[in-house]
Amino acid sequence: MAERFTADLAFIIIVLLGAAALGFLIGYYVRKAMKCKRCAELENDNNGLRQMISSLESDKIALKHKIDKLETEENELKQRITKLESEAMARAKRRPARPKKPQSST
Fold first, then answer.
1. Residue 51: exposed, middle, or buried by beta-carbon count in 10 A (0-12, 13-18, 19+)?
2. Mean pLDDT of the chain
3. What is the pTM of this model?
4. How far is the CA of 5 from the CAs of 2, 8, 9, 11, 17, in angstroms?
């Protein structure tokens, strides 16, 4: 009787280990398949974001050139303003001051 019990116990343990291994393999392949689908979605999202980054960087470069151009224009205008102000001050110094007209009280 002990021999039959030992044989049955060994059979049950072997069947349970086989079922565990089979469950592990099935779970592994199912998870791998699901993970690969998610990886493909993430790769597509990543590629879309990279394209967005490259377009934003090109916009940034174009805007930087525009800013540089506007800064040089601003500097030219400032120089022109200072030149005109100095010319106006020189003219004001050359002209004699006009006497104020006396106000008549009528």
1. exposed
2. 89
3. 0.46
4. 5, 5, 6, 10, 18
